[in-house]
Write a structure and sequence with these properties.
Elements: E1 6-16, E2 21-31, H1 37-50, H2 53-56, E3 62-66, E4 78-82, E5 87-93, H3 98-107, E6 110-115, H4 120-127, E7 137-141, H5 144-151, E8 157-165, E9 168-172, E10 177-181, E11 183-184
Parallel strand pairs: 1-8, 5-6, 6-7
Antiparallel strand pairs: 1-2, 3-4, 4-5, 7-11, 8-9, 9-10
Protein name: YaeQ family protein
Pfam family, one: YaeQ
């Protein structure tokens, strides 16, 4: 019998000072049985970091949501679509293979990969030359210490505040907070 996804609810208050975006998001995260809390929280961080694009790219008339992720490799972990259904932003989390990333670059205006964990540098060295061509691709490294600390915030019901200032995200639950300063690789 197949294991079912675990459902997490998050009330996320985003204060993106860098982009002048302030909004509350009621989110439902389905964590696949093979997904860790760390990876799930990186998906949430990716959504928070790009929430301002709802206004900047779609003028407030779009949808920013979690994709099927690990359940369907043909869908992104997070996506932004405008009112016509066109994919404006495709976000992958982890260390994806080059072919799906290149394919995603053809389907979306912008593709972002957020890689994390101790093996990220090895993954990047092996894939970097294969990802030089797509101009609409960005690759970021989430520091291991920060990504592991994010896992501790994972609860079935979460009240989180995300503040983005000077390219640093601070994610907190009222008791604990974690600073995430991304390293841009591409």
């Amino acid at each position: 019998m197949a294991l079912k996804s675990t459902i997490f609810k998050a009330a996320l208050a985003v204060a993106d000072i860098d982009h002048g975006y302030y909004a509350d998001h009621a989110l439902t995260l389905a964590r696949h049985p093979s997904e860790t809390d760390e990876r799930m929280m990186i998906r949430l961080v990716a959504l928070a970091l790009n929430a301002h694009k709802l206004q900047d790219v779609c003028n407030g008339d779009g949808t920013l949501a979690f994709g099927a992720g690990l359940s369907n490799v043909d869908e992104p972990d997070v996506w932004l679509r405008d009112f016509t259904g066109e994919t404006k932003l495709w976000i992958e989390v982890g260390q994806p293979e080059d072919k799906p990333v290149i394919k995603a670059c053809g389907k979306a205006d912008e593709v972002i990969v957020y890689c994390f964990n101790h093996a990220a540098e090895i993954w990047w060295r092996g894939i970097e030359n294969k990802l030089t061509r797509p101009q609409n691709l960005q690759v970021y490294r989430v520091p291991t210490e920060a990504s592991q600390a994010l896992a501790a915030l994972a609860q079935r019901s979460m009240q989180l505040q995300a503040t983005i200032q000077e390219n640093t995200l601070t994610l907190g639950d009222g008791t604990h907070s974690i600073d995430v300063e991304l390293l841009r690789w591409k």
